[in-house]
């Protein structure tokens, strides 16, 4: 293990702060800054645990005298706990408590942007806990909407795009009775479309591509009596994302979008006006996309994704082969 990221490094850092002839407030600030260093560029999960130790040390030093610094140390701890890989939900639950204790203090003493960032991250924690029935998706959506009061598209386009993306995904994960399924999906599609009114290809290409890719996914799986129309809209959205994503600059994002587009092509007739004529051309195009995506995922050691794509590739081959056999036998009939 690299010695700069061991527990002894944390102890040395704490000792250095203790020996400084600085005020208590300055020492707390120093601890928070050191913790942020570990948190922002962690090389291992241990780095994240070290960040938590430093934030906790700062939190303890605050007592009742420095409420804003105390809330910031709590936020730092909560934000780090949220990102530590964990099999259970214990760390996420600790993070939730941290946000809930820090937010009222921030609302009194901090700048609106700092409060909004905390609300955004709190929303993520609630969203992660919802599948375990330890939080409500509706509260997560509410936290995102509160953050949007500050993170407007004019001033904070990146945060604005991410928030709407999170809101849409939250709607998609909402448990609803099957007859109301179309409602949550409709709300998700609407959320992507609201964001795309303001997030454009020229000024915010990365966010634009993310929103278009995810809009395509939402449209593709929409419960509706117009599946062909939705798939066509989904493909149009993926094509927009592919104006930004390419195999050279953003290989994983590109592979993600082309495999999503392949999924849509798989279920789309070549000529929507004549669905009975089949979809051999779309299946061949889908196969090509799956092959490209599989190569990229394998090359970048994204094993889970490459496995999913390999399975899709098998399915598309199974669909293509009988069609080829039929068309070949037809050709032979015509030649005799």
Task: Give a brief description.
InterPro entries: TPR-like_helical_dom_sf. The protein is mostly helical. Helix content is 74%, strand content 0%.
Written account of the structure:
There is one protein chain. With 336 residues, the chain is mainly alpha-helical. Among the domains are: 50-82 and 116-130 and 140-151, no CATH class; 187-323, Serine Threonine Protein Phosphatase 5, Tetratricopeptide repeat (Alpha Horseshoe). The chain is 74% helix and 0% strand. The chain contains 14 helices and no strands. The protein has helices spanning 7-19, 24-40, 45-62, 67-83, 90-109, 112-129, 137-148, 157-172, 181-196, 205-220, 227-241, 251-266, 280-299, 303-335. Helix 4 packs antiparallel against helix 5 (90-109), helix 7 (137-148) runs antiparallel to helix 8 (157-172) and helix 10 (205-220) packs parallel to helix 12 (251-266). Mean pLDDT is 91; it is low at 1-5. InterPro entries: TPR-like_helical_dom_sf. This is Tetratricopeptide repeat protein.
Secondary-structure blueprint:
Layout: H1 7-19, H2 24-40, H3 45-62, H4 67-83, H5 90-109, H6 112-129, H7 137-148, H8 157-172, H9 181-196, H10 205-220, H11 227-241, H12 251-266, H13 280-299, H14 303-335
Helix pairs in contact: 1-2, 2-3, 2-4, 3-4, 4-5, 5-6, 6-7, 7-8, 8-9, 8-10, 9-10, 10-11, 10-12, 11-12, 12-13, 13-14
List its salient traits.
Serine Threonine Protein Phosphatase 5, Tetratricopeptide repeat; Tetratricopeptide repeat protein; TPR-like_helical_dom_sf; 336 residues; mainly alpha; disordered N terminus
